[in-house]
Structures are given as C-alpha cells and as structure tokens.
Amino acid sequence: KLDFHPSGRHFLQIPGPSPVPDRILRAMSLPTIDHRGPEFGALGRDLLTKIKRVFKTESPVIIYPASGTGAWEAALINTLSPGDRVLMFETGHFATLWQKMARRLSLEPEFLGLPGVEGWRHGVQADMIEARLKEDTHHELKAVCVVHNETSTGVTSDIAAVRRAIDAAGHPALLIVDTISGLASADYRHDEWGVDVTVSGSQKGLMLPPGISFNALSDKAIAASAKAQLPKSFWAWDEILEANKNGYWPYTPSTNLLYGLNEALDMLEEEGLENVLARHQRWAAGVRCAVEAWGLEIQCQDPSVYSPVLTGVVMPEGIDADEVRKIIYERFDLSLGMGLGKVKGTMFRIGHLGDCNDLTLIATLGGCEAGMKLAGVPLKGSGVTAALDYFAAHPMHRAG
Ligand code: PLP
To answer: Coil, strand, or helix at residue 210?
Structure first.
C-alpha cells in the first residue's frame, strides 16, 4: 500500500500493460454501436487493413477478444494436431508458459535452451534450432515456436536468423512467433521474415488496455489450418476470416477496444512506425546508460539483442529485488515489473514502451535510483544524470 495519498498520475512502468494515452481513452469512451450494422462494418474493414501495416504483412490478421494467452492458444490449435511435436526455445518465463500450454493442449513440445539461467540472459540460438531440425529427417517436428521479445528478461531474439535456420535445414516446420510485447515497439516483419503465425497483444506497444490479441497468418498457416485436428470453435480462423471479409466477426467483438485500436493505429501512422521504433531504441539506450552508471548488471548479456521495450536490472547478491520494488512503489507511486520464474527476486524490469517521453523515463529512473538507495543497494553513480545526458546528446529527429 502507498505510504501517502497519491496525486498526479501513477507511474505504470511495467513492460505492459503500458500507459494508455488520453486520445485512446477518449476514443474508447464513445457509445457502443451495433456490431452488425453498416457503421461497424466500415470500422472493421478499415481496422483490418491498417493492422496489417504494423505486422508488415499482406496476409490477414485475426483479432480476438482475449488477452495474449488466448492468441497463443489460437496459433497452436489452428495449425496443429494432437501429439504433434513442436520445437520451442527457452528464452524466459513466457517461453516456458507457452511450452506448458502446448503440453496441456496434447502437443509434444521439445524445449531447447542454454543451461540454467544462461538461457534467460540470451536470445534464441538459431544454430541450435538448425542442428535439431537437421536431425529430424522424418520431419516429425511440425512447428518452431519462439518468443520475439521475451518480456521476462528484456531480450529480443533474431527472428530472421530463426527463419534462415529452418531454411538451411530444408525443414517444412511452421514458424510461429510471439511478439506480444514486441509489436509496434521493436522491429518486426511478418512477411519478410517468413513467419507463419505471429501472435501479439494490445496492452504493450499498441498502448491499449488488455483484452484484444492477434494472429497474423501466412498462406502456409491457412493451408495447415484446413488439416489441423486439435479441437477448436471460438478460436477457429475459418469462420472469422469469412466474416472479416466484410469487416464483421462471427460473434460480438470488443467494440470499444476496437475503437481504441483504430485510434492507436492512426497515432502510429501519424508518427510513422519507423519513428516509433527509433524512439524505443533511443529510450532503451538511455535507460541502459542509467543502469551502467549505477554500476549494476543488465539481465540481457548479449548487446546485439537488448530489448527496446524493457530493461531487466539485476540486483547485487543478497538484495531482494521484490523488496526494492516494494519500496519504490510505496514511496514514489511507481510500478516496475517483477522478476518472474527463475529470476524471481534477482532482478526487476523497467518498461520503456508506448506512451512515454524522455521526462517520464527520467522520473522513472529517479524513482528507481532513490528507491534503491533507500533499500541499501550500493550505487556507483547517478543513473538519472547519465540518462539525461544521453537524451540531451541524442535529440529525437522526425524522419519521413
Ligand atoms: N507472451 C509474452 C511475451 C508476454 O509478455 C505476455 C504477457 O505479458 C504473454 C505472452 C501473455 O499475454 P497475456 O498476459 O496478455 O495473456
């Protein structure tokens, strides 16, 4: 509980849900309309066209009234059959949860990864995937499933490298990618990277509340769905694709969240997606300068895959990261991400995504710095000053 009566805005700096801009909140507050009427059809057609540009795809994108977990399940059950083997890669907590889901759905996941917590400090190792696929000469593995931006660690994997690994092995497995926390914050290219199903969610880079999620498809994925035998009804792509042709859904969609999505897509287009991505890279670099100035370790140990969305800050031995987060919350009304699964208590996560700016991030780093001092974390220097200097020396330029 907060130590004082809060004023101003709460600092929601977890790596999703991210702060929802006023413009989106206003759009969502409009009256709900008839989801079978002409006004809705026009909205649906417009949305379903615009959303493709964010995934960088020409193929259909399905929108579910569900959190990201629903879209995870949809991706698996639309393309696979009971007992199918799937190759998954342990990058962190979310990759682990997806693997557990695959098992519950009666698939047979093989969980590749680096040993211990090493895998939680690096991205997907495409060479390990290639080696495993080359061994699979009878093509028993039906899909390769990887997490693009592992939200539990702050590591963004190289999906193009995974595609090359599958091609180098000459393997027909589907490539299914979770970019629930990467979309509209980290570079993502569904078509160019040859992804068959991309899973995403609303409450991260799209700056919406939780509650809608996505499957971007490929022709190969749609063909696989015609043969896939896992039971599905609500999640089945065929009826949704049919209704979507006219901008409708086979059931009642989340009308007001779709108003919000429409507004979010307009905001992203006004700024330009490439500008949005550059803004996230720049914030992430500033936050890393702060962590370095504090003399602390970043959870991600491979600079080539630092996440532009969040940064995991490792606490020195003997310090409980959850205790530090608690102090920061109670004293400064600032929420940070907790360490999940194997890294519980050893690190916390700073989200720097969506509707932020340099000064909200400086304030966030200020809360972290003051809270860590109160918690007795030995700091080498001021991360706030380091980040301010970085932002001042690297002005944002409008491109395009
Ligand atoms: N995958 C990743 C990478 C996530 O970050 C999350 C949520 O944070 C999920 C899956 C699960 O999504 P949801 O909590 O929206 O069901």
So the answer is: coil
Nearest to 80 by CA among 107, 115, 56, 48: 107
119-171 pLDDT tens trace: 999 999 999 999 999 999 999 999 999 999 999 999 999 999 999 999 999 99
Residue closest by Cα to atom 15 of ligand 1 = 68
Q: 317-326: per-residue pLDDT in tens? A: 999 999 999 9
95 alpha carbon to ligand 1 midpoint, in Å? 10
Test site for ligand 1: of 12, 18, 124, 180, most ligand atoms within 8 A of the Cβ: 180
Quote the ipTM score: 0.99
Backbone angles phi, psi at 203, to 5 degrees: -95, 20
Domains and CATH numbers, the chain: 11-19+272-393 (3.90.1150.10), 22-270 (3.40.640.10)
* Preceding peptide of 21 cis, ω within 30°: no
Q: Which atom of ligand 1 is nearest to the CA of 70?
A: 16
Question: What percent of the chain stands above pLDDT 70?
Answer: 100
Alpha-carbon distance of 237 to 61, in angstroms, equals: 10
Share of the chain above pLDDT 90, in %: 97
- Residues 168, 163: Cα–Cα separation, whole Å: 9
Cα 47 versus chain centre, distance: 20
